[in-house]
């Protein structure tokens, strides 16, 4: 395994972040970095930590390179050996590098090596001597093919399409609101029917000898139940009319393209004046007036 040069060590040390420095170290070693390869990542971290330790302890740049080379050799030669043999290999390597690396630095590195690598020797040994079990996840995905495009003749201009989208959105909200009001009406109607039935049952259960006060309370409760039902129905009808007018106003206010012609006109749900009692009375008065005038002419 090729060693590192002082320039490469300096480049690694000046790189911010362990992940980025790991990539620089892999390039210096001519390795193709693979984040999924656990052995490679552990080995790169092992060497990177050694570099940073040596720099922090003030090793000369040339001796930092030698310490990295020593760490590479120790990892390669000890992981498949028992721990007693690994210690002998460490001692032999230190003697070999003595003179190339100062005695002080050899002692510092030996202490560091025992506190890190040797402390977790069995774990390193397990990782580097056994193949990792591979876990492959398989998923079945259903791919829906796009539908065949419609002919260009059936297409719409963008402003017409946008208008249709807004119109559809309003109608969708209107449908949802109508459904909500219908459900609300059903609930209120069921509650009022239940109250009226209970009040009617109390009326039926009145005894002939009941006093005037009891009869008055029962009749009042019966009338109150009917009154509440009528008020609720009126309130819901008003609420429905308000929402109906709001949606019609929103549709009418929507900017309509000229190609679609004039906007729709809506009739309100209020009764026609001619069909109301006041309207009929006015019409009858006018008819009587015409009859009188015709008789006078005769």
From TrEMBL:
The lineage of its organism: Eukaryota, Metazoa, Spiralia, Lophotrochozoa, Brachiopoda. It comes from the Eukaryota. Residues 288-298 have a biased composition (Basic and acidic residues). Keywords: Coiled coil. Residues 189-251 form a coiled coil. Residues 252-298 are annotated as: Disordered. This is Uncharacterized protein C8orf74 homolog.
């Amino acid at each position: 395994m090729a060693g590192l040069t002082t320039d490469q060590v300096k480049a690694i040390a000046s790189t911010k972040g362990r992940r980025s420095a790991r990539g620089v170290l892999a390039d210096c070693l001519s390795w193709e970095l693979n984040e999924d390869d656990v052995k490679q990542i552990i080995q790169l971290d092992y060497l990177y930590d050694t570099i940073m330790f040596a720099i922090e302890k003030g090793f000369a740049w040339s001796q930092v390179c030698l310490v990295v080379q020593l760490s590479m050799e120790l990892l390669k030669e000890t992981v498949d050996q028992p721990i007693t043999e690994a210690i002998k290999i460490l001692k032999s390597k230190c003697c070999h590098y003595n003179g190339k690396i100062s005695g002080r630095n050899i002692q510092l590195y030996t202490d560091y090596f025992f506190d890190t690598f040797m402390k977790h020797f069995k774990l390193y040994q397990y990782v580097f001597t056994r193949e990792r079990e591979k876990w492959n996840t398989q998923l079945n995905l259903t791919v829906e093919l796009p539908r065949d495009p419609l002919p260009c003749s059936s297409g719409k201009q963008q402003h017409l399409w946008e208008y249709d989208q807004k119109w559809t959105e309003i109608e969708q909200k209107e449908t949802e609101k109508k459904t909500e009001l219908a459900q609300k009406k059903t609930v209120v109607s069921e509650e009022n029917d239940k109250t009226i039935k209970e009040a009617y049952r109390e009326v039926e259960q009145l005894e002939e000898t009941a006093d005037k006060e009891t009869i008055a309370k029962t009749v009042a409760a019966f009338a109150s139940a009917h009154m509440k039902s009528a008020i609720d129905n009126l309130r819901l009808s008003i609420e429905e009319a308000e929402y109906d007018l709001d949606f019609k106003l929103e549709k009418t206010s929507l900017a309509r393209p000229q190609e679609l012609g004039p906007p729709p006109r809506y009739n309100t749900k209020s009764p026609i004046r001619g069909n109301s009692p006041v309207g009929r009375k006015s019409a009858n008065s006018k008819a009587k007036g015409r009859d009188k005038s015709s008789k006078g002419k005769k």
